[in-house]
Design goal:
Elements: E1 2-8, E2 11-17, E3 22-26, E4 36-42, E5 47-49, E6 57-61, H1 65-70, E7 85-89, E8 94-95, E9 100-101, E10 110-112, E11 114-120, E12 136-143, E13 146-147, H2 148-154, H3 158-161, E14 167-174, E15 183-188, E16 191-197, H4 205-213, E17 223-225, E18 233-235, E19 240-245, E20 250-255
Parallel strand pairs: 6-17, 8-14, 9-20
Antiparallel strand pairs: 1-2, 1-5, 1-14, 2-3, 3-4, 6-7, 10-13, 10-18, 11-12, 11-17, 12-14, 15-16, 15-19, 19-20
Length: 256
């Protein structure tokens, strides 16, 4: 099942995206149960929004072996960080498919980072990895946009990754998805820049959920970004960036 959030007539709503590009509107957010209200829309009649409204986006840094290797060879294939590196993107960074990534005047280098994202279905605290699936609504694509020059200059990641529009998510949440062994791509102006596989993640999704919820509570709609593979690079105004994950569609945004 593909869950979307959409805008029609100035009103935002959740819906189910069908194979024929019809959207069946839901009465409420899909976290407790799926309740359709009988109204339907065509996909091209609405504006897609980010498919969830997270209180926070918890991100995992340096979670792919190939990405760590490109960052000055910090890790070998046989070395794994004992625990994930975490940072948080705030809700002001979240935008949806088709919306514009704003190039900030305070930065001279803004990068794309293709990531698999987990969307949480219910309040989660002290969740064991073996129970993690019970707390997952589904998965979606995410672009962890980063002001790389600011990240390097300041030596920590908060401002560089938290600017307005720096967290595109979408286009939909797929509830019937396995995160194992999926191809993950980033394209810039139709040229493939990142081409990897989720099998290269050091920390798997269930383990990440256990680690995060051991120290903080996740709420329905919260998002976990699971890290980016090798091939990160620079974007400029006017560029079109696409994040594609096998089985999760294409998240497309323009840089403005």
């Amino acid at each position: 099942m593909r869950i979307v959030r959409a805008l029609s007539g100035g009103e935002a709503f959740f819906g189910i995206l069908k194979e024929d590009d019809r959207i069946e509107r839901l009465e409420k957010a899909p976290f407790d149960e799926i309740v359709k209200d009988g109204r339907e829309y065509l996909l091209d009649e609405v504006t897609l929004l980010a498919p969830t409204e997270p209180t926070k986006v918890v991100c995992v840094g340096k979670n792919y072996f190939d990405h760590c290797e490109e960052l000055k060879g910090e890790l070998r294939d046989d070395i794994k960080l004992e625990t994930p590196i975490l940072f948080i993107k705030p809700s002001n960074a979240v935008i949806g498919h088709g919306q514009v990534i704003e190039y900030p005047c305070v930065s001279e280098r803004v990068d794309y980072e293709a990531e698999l994202a987990i969307v949480i279905s219910k309040k989660a605290k002290s969740v064991l990895a073996c129970d993690a699936d019970k707390y997952i609504l589904g998965y979606t694509c995410l672009n962890d946009v980063t002001a790389r020059d600011i990240q390097k200059r300041e030596g920590q990641w908060s401002r560089a990754k938290s600017m307005d529009t720096f967290c595109p998510i979408g286009p939909y949440i797929e509830t019937e998805f396995s995160p194992d062994g999926k191809r993950i791509l980033a394209r810039l102006n139709d040229e493939i820049k990142q081409d990897s596989n989720t099998s290269l993640m050091m920390h798997k999704c269930a383990d990440i959920i256990e680690f995060i919820t051991s120290s903080m509570t996740l709420f329905p709609g919260d998002v976990i970004a699971t890290g980016t593979p090798a091939g990160i690079g620079e974007m400029h105004k006017g560029d079109i960036v696409e994040i594609e994950i096998e089985g999760l569609g294409v998240l497309k945004n323009t840089v403005g």
